[in-house]
Backbone:
């Protein structure tokens, strides 16, 4: 994702500087990136750091490192935030994290493995979810450690493929969503597993006539998260979407703000690093 987001300035042109300023202004004094309430948050710190990297800016390492160090080996973190901590360390220069902390984070990630080969929201979960599997794979990559059971993760993900083409987020859920299906396809493509053609077709069907992608068939309006993840998955599985580029660019333009950030959708009235990073990802794909 980060490599593609680096291409966003090709379309942002002079506006890229305003986006840089926005990301820089989101870093609090303690080194964390602010959430919508203004508090430092590990989840938003991921997108703040990756946004600056995508825009080829030097990271304030000396400010950020103490913020990350206070989380130690992630003893009090759930899988989502363990993955966020791993990603933040991965964004900093090599050797910023000690080998011991890296090993302990890896051990904690393993505690979330499920009996069906995936990763769940809590230790001992009976089955994995697409989201937690996606996060676990990324965290292993960021820590530079091998995924313990790639075939098991593939089996966990493929078990969530629904008859209509989408992927459910977890067992027992009868409907899928665009971000979940996109994450599943991205995972399967990375793990060199077969990609169900019906899943790519389902993603394409979520394209809105007004531009962008909807979260699902019953969602009335498109949003940036669905748009960016759908484009990323389609590109990764080599499914053409050139016919959607013009309307999608128009959609993204309607979400641009004078702050140098992007709203998440047409009903949103606040901005943050997460949706602005996803806008960079979408723009990166649209620039190719």
Residues:
């Amino acid at each position: 994702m980060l490599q593609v987001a680096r291409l966003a300035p090709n379309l942002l042109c002079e506006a890229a500087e305003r986006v840089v300023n926005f990301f820089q202004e989101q870093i609090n004094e303690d080194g964390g990136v602010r959430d919508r309430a203004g508090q430092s948050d590990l989840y938003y710190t991921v997108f703040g750091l990756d946004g600056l990297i995508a825009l080829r800016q030097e990271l304030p390492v000396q400010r950020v490192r103490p913020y990350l160090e206070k989380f130690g080996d992630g003893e009090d973190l759930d899988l989502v935030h363990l993955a966020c901590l791993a990603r933040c360390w991965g964004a900093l220069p090599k050797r910023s994290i000690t080998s011991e902390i890296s090993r302990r984070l890896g051990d904690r990630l393993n505690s979330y493995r499920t009996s069906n080969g995936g990763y769940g929201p809590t230790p001992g979960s009976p089955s994995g979810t697409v989201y937690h599997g996606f996060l676990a794979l990324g965290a292993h990559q960021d820590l530079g450690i091998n995924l313990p059971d790639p075939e098991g993760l593939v089996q966990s993900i493929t078990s969530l493929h629904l008859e209509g083409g989408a992927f459910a987020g977890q067992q027992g859920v009868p409907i899928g969503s665009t971000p979940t299906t996109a994450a599943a396809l991205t995972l399967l493509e990375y793990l060199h597993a077969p990609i169900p053609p019906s899943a790519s077709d389902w993603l394409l069907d979520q394209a809105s006539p007004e531009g962008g992608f909807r979260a699902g068939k019953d969602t009335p309006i498109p949003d940036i998260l669905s748009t960016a993840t759908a484009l990323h998955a389609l590109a990764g599985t080599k499914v053409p979407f050139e016919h959607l580029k013009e309307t999608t660019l128009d959609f993204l333009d309607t979400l641009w703000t004078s702050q140098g950030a992007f709203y998440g959708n047409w009903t949103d009235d606040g901005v943050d690093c997460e949706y602005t990073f996803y806008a960079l990802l979408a723009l990166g794909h649209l620039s190719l």
The mean pLDDT is 96. Residues 130-143 form the longest helix (14 residues). The CA atoms of residues 264 and 275 lie 6 Å apart. The first strand starts at residue 213 and ends at 214.
